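Entry for the shared binder. Reason: the reviewer on the internal report wants the predicted structure included alongside the sequence.
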Amino acid sequence: MAEKKVLRAGIVGSGFAARFHFDALQRVYGVKVEVVGAYSKTPANLKKFSSEKGIKAFKNLQELIAASDVLHLCTPPVTHEPLAVEILQHNKDVIIEKPLTGYFGNEEEEDFSGDTFSREEGLKQALNSIQNILKAEKKSKGRIMYAENWIYAPAIQKEREVIEKTNSQILWIQAQQSHSGSHSKDYGKWKRSGGGSLMGKGCHPLAGAIYLKQVEGLDRNGKPIRPKTVSCRTHAITRMPHFENELHLRDSYTDVEDYASTHIVFEDGTVADIVASELLQGGVKNYLEVHANNHRTICNLTPNNAMQTYNPVHSNFDDIYVVEKTGTKQGWSNISPDEAWFNGYQHEMEAFYRTAALDEKLESGSQLAADVIATIYAAYLSAEKNGVEIEIPLV
């Protein structure tokens, strides 16, 4: 039997995303993967990350690209377009952490504010960025693999099987990602994050909803069903002058929203409702509910009741991870026995490397990523107009 080819992985970035990408790669079993090293524009962070993981710290991006077969783009979304284009120009596959891209203002405009810029201009520039990335992919032998872990979460993939095997028509999707505030220091500044809750959190359940409608369309008619129009309202609750902070919610956002409610109408007239917020205490709420013509499914990513624990004294669990963003470890907890597994991190990496090595079908690619960003920025335009329905200009 022939020896399996080893695929060389290079990580661009050295922060939170780089760490969970590296950890997920340790659980890829169907393909042999060697992490050759990492590159970051922050030398101190790169040195710490590469030392912790026992990998090489590359001096520049070009050397890392040359040494790799697959590149992991684990940098802030403001950097994704130029980095992805450069990697694709070298005909290498690139795994791009979500969101794909966005609008981050004008670099020369020091007083840029997410509160005041034209959402029409934001949508236009986001679409231009999408087109630049897709054009680079079209010219390249490399592929974009969109690292949206929700797509590969076991519950979502099981629902895919249900839809395909029962020839389901999805009528309505409800989905949400919310918690008490982001880990990232860049989050909360539009120039770095490209938006607030709708962008940073809403991209996940939105991708899940768009993906399952793609699955339905391909199964029933051989063509994905794509989002057509969107209406949205956004709010900055923790920035209100009379907000009383009891220190359970992060309130350090400068010019982004902390709540968004989005209604999408698909090409076939069916709908999805997506909520994203920073106003949730007691952990993360990641769920997607499908209402179909022949079944109903609730996908609970986090929390779920796979394991429930009662702890009478908080300090008993000081060195035990319970679940992301929980406010206290005292009392009852929906403790996660393997949070990364339920959230699909190892599954997406396994799938991406099987695509790279064996050319297996890619469930989460550039078209899905593009539809998510186009929908988000059309939603921001709707919110600027107090919820007016906006046509989504799909790329």
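Summary line for the report: The chain has a mean pLDDT of 95.
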